[in-house]
Design goal:
By secondary structure, the chain is mainly alpha-helical. Helix content is 85%, strand content 0%. It has one domain. Helix 1 packs antiparallel against helix 4.
């Protein structure tokens, strides 16, 4: 096995851990929402706070670092469209994690500690965070599609599909944010 093949394996394995864990959390949270189980929702968000520095951030950074090593070791350049798209998706997820999910998760934890699970602000913040997370998970799946398809400027159909999926995800998120929260 060549060094390049080892790097490909490590890059894919890190991405699987990162995206897989995020997808599982999203599915569990969606189920808790559907059952109006605020305790489970709060517990999952507490779990994410625990997992972020131990799993999500290391897996995300490993995916990024192994990707850069693949560029250095392989026939790729940073200017390739599919690499630019992948880096934009990674950066979007990473910045959302640090600038939105982490502080918002801390605020939610404080609200629960101070006012309990029935507080309307808890419900509103968790709902908004979950909607943003679904868009983020969609972006990560689009990065996987990008990495497999490796579109260049001539792959208009793949790029159109990716933009359409992103557009639908953003439209659904915007619609969900405009709808009143379900009463419990």
């Amino acid at each position: 096995m060549s060094r390049y093949e080892i790097l490909v394996f490590l890059h894919i394995a890190a991405a699987i851990v990162w995206l897989g864990a995020g997808f599982v959390i999203a599915v569990l949270v969606l189920d808790a929402e559907r059952h109006s189980d605020r305790a489970r929702m709060a517990g999952y968000h507490e779990d994410v706070g625990t997992l972020a520095p131990r799993l999500f951030i290391p897996a995300s950074l490993a995916t990024f670092i192994f990707g850069l090593l693949l560029i250095a070791d392989g026939p790729w350049t940073l200017g390739a469209l599919w690499i630019v798209i992948a880096l934009a998706g990674w950066l979007t997820s990473f910045l959302l994690g640090i600038l939105y999910f982490k502080p918002e998760g801390e605020r939610i934890t404080e609200i629960v500690a101070a006012r309990g699970l029935d507080d309307p602000e808890f419900t509103a913040r968790v709902r908004r965070l979950n909607i943003v997370d679904r868009v983020q998970v969609t972006v990560l799946f689009l990065v996987v599609l990008d990495m497999v398809g490796k579109p260049d400027g001539d792959d208009a159909s793949l790029i159109a599909v990716m933009l359409a999926v992103l557009g639908v995800a953003l439209a659904l998120a915007a619609a969900a944010l405009r709808r009143p929260a379900p009463s419990h």
